[in-house]
Amino acid sequence: MNKEKINGKDLLLLLLYVPGNTGREYEPIRGRTRLTKMIFIFEKEIYKKFEFDKLLPKDVLLEFQPYKYGPFAKELYFNIEFFQNIDFVNVRYIEYESTDEAKTESEEFVYWEEDIIIDEDTTDMVQIEEFYLTNTGKEYVKGKIIPILSEDQLEALEKFKSTLNGISLQKILKYVYNKYPRYSADSEIK
Hints:
By secondary structure, the chain is an alpha+beta fold. It has one domain (8-115, 123-183). Helix content is 46%, strand content 14%. The strands form 2 sheets. Strands 1-5-4 form a 3-stranded antiparallel sheet. The protein has a two-stranded antiparallel sheet with strand order 2-3. Helix 1 (8-17) crosses helix 5, helix 2 (32-46) packs across helix 6 and helix 2 (32-46) crosses helix 7.
């Protein structure tokens, strides 16, 4: 039995590494809200079912709290920044038409960014962050994390990412709010 462990930050890298609904390796994840809810659902539903608890100790999982946009773990934002600083993860800003989903994503981003400057001009476009692995991040995951995963774990991650990257943010939020109402009690989005 493999005794190697991964740390809590590695889950973020794994989700950015595996294919998603397009079937493309390293498929980016669009938006902090989607990424946050993906990790939340992983911890609640995938973690034990596919024996990730044998690789990822419970004490290194993110601690989610109910906030204005449902379950939130500020540490995830620190992890993103950490991986950006060591050139494992990069962010690009994609302009989208101002739909309900784009507004939700944009509002949560503004809520958690203390230094953001908001243009008072109204526009029909909003910017959403898209997270992706750099070449350095890809090599790290391929060499250090993937080898310790079982085929079942890797397949579960791919299916999980494919599902959550392939549906609307509103459907993800509705699912989380209905299944985990304790985390949505303070939510401004219903």
